[in-house]
């Protein structure tokens, strides 16, 4: 083979994945259940494009000749930089600001779609993945935040995860008050302190204490540098983690108001609980923050039992829309990681959908009679039945049936010359055939029995197939 005719190796780019019919069906069924909960709460769908002007994304303003740090970017005909969306929230903020005069306020919407990260891929870390968000823009009170938490809990229940999750809630204002009381001033030190708090579930209070101080060495000997707080400073943070909130704090009052709403609506601490260790989006969120944690155990790559962890979260982000408008615009919302949630449902047996049923396949036993076979297919389709005529090149009966098997077809329709003369058809029930095959070991017996195959009149094609599918 010359260099000119050299074949291209089929390769999937790193950080991306293909999706099969079974996976698409399973995720589609999951998304339908989530949508039903969102709409029950009065949220409506909105769809924004994959591309936004790069400056719209906010976190990644074009400060280089090519703004590609974290995002995938290109220039349009006007030499303006556009980027694939990094999340679904920044496009919502742009949409709301652009349509401010016509939208109802508060504006309640949900969005589902792919987002893109120009980052190094790794295990469970993709450059393209799906998110499913819900947001309320224009409602300043803790009632809107509490509603988000209750809706997250209802979504988990609808997906069959009751008793296997908890929605954990905290408030950025409380965290800021603790940091101020502890005398933590620099942004870098704040970040390190809050990361330490975030490790409470993983390392316990002693581990957090080390991370607040000089640092912590793990079992492998790897050292994580700490925040460098004094014992006195660390004690303030540890008191908070232990359940002692700062006094006279606006965030504490907001959490108390949310808790009253949870209690009134019947959401106990087994479903939604105030948790001081919740840390999210340090620069992004301005008030309540929350996340859905799945509480069942799974094995990590080292074979250790660990809690599955977060599948989504969010909080109040009152500053985002203000990038587009002078007046303050309050907003709160949350995002579900669709792929991660689907994996959780798979592990718990709640994903539901298996390989979707394929079409009924009309076999082509005689090329000269193609029009007859096409008429059968049309009759089935007009009756609302998935159907296709075999379009492959082989005339071999066994290979055509094998094709139908690979399509997960429920049945094949057979009309040879003898059947045509008699005005009949053979219907081969592939589901019954597979079940019968498990009990037959002798090939001759198999051929004689022709399990799952039966004869019908040509004019009874539609009714016979409908009956078969209902029985299956």
In short:
The chain is 38% helix and 21% strand. With 472 residues, the chain is α+β, with helices and mostly antiparallel strands.
What does it look like?
This protein is an alpha+beta fold and 472 residues long. It folds into 2 domains: 21-179 and 239-347, Bira Bifunctional Protein, Domain 2 (BirA Bifunctional Protein, domain 2, 2-Layer Sandwich); 360-471, 3-Layer(aba) Sandwich (Rossmann fold), CATH 3.40.50. Helix content is 38%, strand content 21%. It has 16 helices and 18 strands. The protein has helices at 21-40, 54-57, 89-98, 142-158, 172-181, 187-198, 200-212, 231-241, 250-265, 338-347, 370-382, 397-406, 417-422, 430-437, 443-449, 461-471, and strands at 44-45, 51-53, 73-75, 81-84, 107-116, 128-137, 165-171, 215-217, 223-225, 272-274, 288-299, 305-316, 331-337, 360-362, 387-389, 411-414, 424-429, 453-457. An 8-stranded mixed beta sheet has the order 1-5-6-13-12-11-7-10. A 5-stranded mixed beta sheet has the order 15-14-16-17-18. Helix 1 (21-40) crosses helix 4 (142-158) and helix 6 (187-198) runs antiparallel to helix 7 (200-212). The longest helix is centred in the N-terminal third of the chain and has 20 residues, at 21-40. The chain starts with 20 loop residues before the first helix and ends with a helix. The mean pLDDT is 88. One of its GO terms (cellular component) is cytoplasm. Keywords: Aminoacyl-tRNA synthetase, ATP-binding, Cytoplasm, Ligase, Nucleotide-binding, Protein biosynthesis. It catalyses: tRNA(His) + L-histidine + ATP = L-histidyl-tRNA(His) + AMP + diphosphate + H(+). Residues 39-356 form the Aminoacyl-transfer RNA synthetases class-II family profile domain. L-histidine binds at residues 87-89, 117, 131, 135, 280, 284-285.
